[in-house]
Amino acid sequence: MNNHKFTETLTADNAVLAMIDHQTGLMVGLGDEHPTVIKNNILALSNTAKAAGIPSVITASMPDGPNGPVMPEIQQILGGEIINRADEINAWKSPEFRNAVKATGRKKIIMAGIVTDVCLLFPALSAVAEGYDVYAVIDASGTWNKTVQEVTIQRLVQAGVKVTTWASVLAEIMDDWRGENAESLGNVLAGHTTKYGYVMTSYFANK
Known about the structure:
alpha/beta; Rossmann fold; six-stranded parallel β-sheet; 10 helices; hydrolase; Isochorismatase-like_sf; Hydrolase, isochorismatase family; Hydrolase_YcaC-like
């Protein structure tokens, strides 16, 4: 059996970041993690993509309604335009979003969304069905409570989505502390994980 799909790693050259519906109105209802922690993780994932030079696609669902606008920090970090969807709950059903992902020419999608069981789950399933290799970043996503999170993870895994965390994504992309993006990615890790900041201080002091 060929397990290449499950063992091939992320790199700065084969992945695209999809940030789905990280909107202020939706952030209010999160209960599976402390909002401050989730915000930190979302920004850490965004900074990881920026430091590695990974292209990104940002989308929002009905931003003029109760969902509210995308967290402004995300666009400040990643730049680019936000794809505002009027009706599609599943972002993959938006031609603008889907085409933006396809235009990168990359088959690995690092995906995060609010809420996990809708905004992340549905496009992840749809992208996998079209042959994409999806990495669902659970700690940069969020939902109503832990039960909903756990059920959603089960469904993602059943569909062949790779469930992961932002720090694991960063380490997988970095691959080697001698790599060209190692210092910038290391600074992201230090900036968003207080304890590891001390490790980075020691590392750079002895370079």
